[in-house]
Amino acid sequence: MTFLTDLTQAFRENASADNAGPMEAYMKHHFQFYGIKAPLRKQITKQIWSLHKTEVKNNAREIGLTLLQQQQREFHYAAMEILEKELRGKFVKTDIELIEKTLTTDSWWDTVDFLAKYLLGNYLTQFPEETDTVISRFSDSDNMWLNRSAILFQLGYKSKTDAALLFALCEKHSGSGEFFIQKAIGWALREYAKTDPKAVIKFVSETTLKPLSNREALKNL
């Protein structure tokens, strides 16, 4: 796989131990980093990607999964960027298996939030008939990151948001003690408030939410 070989070489050549330490600390030492900051990482990925455009286009799913298996977090970011661009509008129904794999591999907010919106959200825009089945399964899962993804997948839907579904998911998980679930509820509601603030205010006033969720939901209202 020449793309992966060239990307690996480029990442290694641009590694910075001075940057890696703080980046790893910011991510609570869950992941290893080469220490390549986002602007340079994206530039490197774009350059190598353009050199292997056909390979990446024809093997996006395989390349994405291979990148996710690498240790350094920069590879994981490259994976989600490639999958988002190459699969946009071109999903097949079985891609939900791939999406679930990305959401549950080395999960943390820095990848899950992007994947929930741009992979899961776009997939369900293309296949809306799958929404009930997929979101019910993710919401019922013991995996907290799948729960968070179910709450967040409509970010960016704006007027196309299924408000009833959003509110039902927020209420379902309203008692969660997980910081990332409480934060997701607040974030999802705050975003929808840009479209229908009255509906969000009404929901919050009638629903017992954790203080964090409540504060985040009403932050801009």
TrEMBL record:
CDD domains: AlkD_like_1. Transmembrane segments: none annotated. Gene3D superfamilies: ARM repeat domains, Hypothetical protein (EF3068). InterPro entries: ARM-type_fold, DNA_alkylation. This is DNA alkylation repair protein. SUPFAM superfamilies: ARM repeat. It comes from Flavobacterium supellecticarium. Pfam families: DNA_alkylation.
